[in-house]
Design goal:
- It is built from 24 helices and 23 strands.
- The strands form five sheets. It has a six-stranded parallel beta sheet with strand order 5-4-6-7-9-8, sandwiched between helices.
- Helix 3 packs across helix 18, helix 8 packs across helix 14 and helix 16 packs across helix 17.
- The protein is globular, with a radius of gyration of 25 Å.
């Protein structure tokens, strides 16, 4: 028996029929659809979503990029078990999705994009907002989404949806292929009727695939670890996505292996655990990087091994050091010349531990890790402690927020200087308590992302830490959080512009230029009233004069019934000078500035010093 529905109605009905299991409970795979309607989706997709609003909630945002960020953050906070879709009109609504799609692509997160498209019949050609290519009649604005989609399809006939939809969901739920999917919907085809087979709407439960390691790869990894004396484990986001925190902890404790964290992996092991050395790499702790330099074998679990983690390839791939990459995705497992161990993080760690038996790292190595950890904690305490300085540093603000936080809280950030300071200083005690977007380092993710995290965890407090530069890029979803009664606590650090890049600019010998507002050709007296702006969007707001006032303001925000924005002025020049590792930032070979020429010489010396370590 066939069901006669429009393409849009069939798509929405099929989405509502997809399920997943969360701790044994059946939940809908798609938690909802973010929608901003226009002429390319309001008539057909809008009608279908309205009819299904009790099964598949529709949420309205103020910006297409922001709503896609919220969907990405929801998926990340849900450990990729659940996800959301976004629908836009043809044109700028669709192209606004591109940045958020790149965030999902880089971070391996599921996101279903449903932009409207041109008329398949080409009867009204060009239709309003249509992008025309003089040499290719098949191109539309949605082709911008191809390079940032794991799967891309354009529906030009109704029956194409029968295969396209199931291919899309397979990619969205595959732990190795996971990423954004685009199904571009020609706006005339959306409204067409078709006789759909009932089987297309049959309920389906998608469960997490946990592939075990290959026997030969497991044997090679076991041998490499057995002959090592100074092993180190790097915990990536794949550990959280596999919900393998228990297996991770058991492995480290049984074998005495110290652990360090990437931005995405932080919180998989409690920050208070004696084997947890904190962040690794360019923004890492002194403890983690000291052991990373001296380790003879590095077991990297669920990480993409990007340059901030590896110190531009000089930290985890040093001369004589073996690298084992345990990853569900073969593309990542072969990086940096690693021994690949292609498997689910939990399955891989469990089987690796069983095969290792009673093997244990050198006792002195484990003891050194704990000593380095204690030393770093003392160093970090000096940077995060409150002082009488006229303007606090980012680290000091982080310290104040940490002291006021609870273990159940989720701290969220992205881009700029804050991720580096948080990576060094924040201690997360519960899985998912640290949510940083640093794969794409996307400014503007913070507030929109927090909205998605709050949807995923309404019972947990979500604390957003954002600089004024990123806040001004994308803040509209403060209004959405107020309207949806999804309370956030936003700590807005005002350093007068792009302080992080200002510091990098100076470090490369360049003059202060175009980063801080006072140096960007603006009138120093034309300040931006961030507090008034936040209040205009419906949030509670308070200007905080010092760190002591921040503590009491955070307590009040916790009791508030709506989003609160706390604005505190900070020092744009101050950062944590301890810890960290070299990062390859090329300096111009020719310049009329002596400072740039000097920075170039330092750069060349640094590269020469690491010549044996570079890939």
């Amino acid at each position: 028996m066939a069901l006669r529905l429009t393409v849009a109605q069939a798509l929405v009905r099929a989405m509502a029929a997809q399920w997943t299991l969360i701790e044994g409970e059946r939940r809908r795979l798609f938690a909802g659809v973010w929608a901003i309607f226009g002429h390319g989706n309001v008539a057909a997709i809008g009608e279908a979503l309205y009819a299904a609003r009790d099964l598949l909630p529709t949420y309205r945002a103020h910006n297409e990029q922001a709503m896609a960020h919220a969907a990405v953050a929801f998926a990340k906070a849900s450990y990729r078990r659940r996800m959301m879709a976004c629908t836009t009109s043809i044109g700028p609504g669709a192209t606004n999705l591109t940045t958020a799609a790149a965030v999902a692509h880089v971070n391996r997160l599921p996101l279903l994009l449903l932009p409207g498209d041109v008329f398949a019949t080409r009867a009204p050609d060009p239709v309003l907002q249509q992008v025309e290519d003089f040499s290719d009649g098949l191109v539309s604005a949605n082709d911008c989404l191809r390079p940032v989609s794991r799967y891309f399809d354009r529906i030009t006939r109704p029956e194409q949806l029968l295969t396209a939809f199931h291919r899309a969901v397979q990619v969205l739920t595959d732990p190795a292929q996971c990423g954004p999917v685009t199904i571009a919907l020609c706006q005339d085809v959306q409204a067409e009727a078709f006789d759909w087979p009932e089987a297309f709407f049959a309920e389906r439960v998608w469960t997490l695939r946990r592939p075990p390691p290959d026997a030969n790869e497991l044997s090679a990894a076991v041998h490499a670890l057995r002959v090592s004396r100074r092993p180190l484990l790097v915990c990536g986001g794949g550990v959280l996505y596999a919900q393998a925190g228990g297996e991770l902890r058991a492995f480290c404790e049984r074998h005495g292996v110290p652990l360090c964290e990437t931005q995405a992996g932080k919180s998989a092991l409690p920050g208070s655990h004696p084997l947890n050395l904190g962040g690794v790499g360019v923004t890492g702790t002194g403890a983690a990087n000291a052991l990373a330099r001296d380790a003879d074998v590095v077991l990297a679990v669920g990480t993409r091994l990007q340059d901030f983690t590896t110190g531009s390839g000089t930290l985890l791939h040093a001369r004589g050091q073996r690298l084992i990459a345990l990853n569900v995705q073969a593309f990542d497992a072969w990086k940096q010349g690693a021994l690949p161990l292609i498997a689910d993080a939990g399955e891989g760690l469990s089987r690796l531990s069983a095969a290792l038996g009673d093997w244990h790292a050198e006792r002195g190595w484990t003891q050194r890790a704990q000593a380095e950890r204690r030393e770093w904690q003392g160093t970090a305490a000096r940077f995060t402690a409150a002082t009488a300085a006229s303007l606090p540093s980012d680290a000091q603000v982080i310290g104040a927020v940490q002291r006021a936080a609870r273990d159940s809280d989720i701290v969220l950030g992205a881009a700029g200087g804050l991720p580096g300071e948080l990576h060094k200083h924040w201690r997360a005690e519960r899985a998912g308590g640290y949510h940083l977007e640093y794969g794409y380092s996307c400014m503007g993710y913070e507030i929109a992302g927090a909205l998605g995290v709050k949807l995923a965890h309404p019972q947990r407090e979500v604390i957003v830490m954002v600089g004024d530069g990123s806040y001004l890029m994308l803040n509209s979803e403060i209004a959405t959080s107020v309207r949806m009664r999804l309370k956030l606590i936003v700590v807005l650090l005002d350093n007068g512009g792009f302080g992080c890049i200002e510091r990098l600019q100076g470090a490369t010998g360049n003059a202060s230029f175009n980063n801080l507002l006072d140096a960007a050709g603006s009138d120093p007296g034309s300040g931006i009233d961030l507090l008034a702006h936040a209040r205009s969007l419906g949030a509670n707001g308070q200007r905080v004069e010092d760190l002591a006032a921040l503590s009491s303001a955070l307590a009040a925000a916790r009791q508030a019934d709506r989003t609160t924005v706390l604005v505190i002025e900070t020092d744009p020049a101050a950062s944590t000078t301890a810890g960290g590792h070299w990062w390859d930032v090329a300096v111009p070979a020719i310049s009329n500035r002596a400072e740039v020429r000097a920075a170039r010489e330092r750069y060349l010396q640094a590269r020469a010093a690491r010549a044996d370590e570079l890939p």
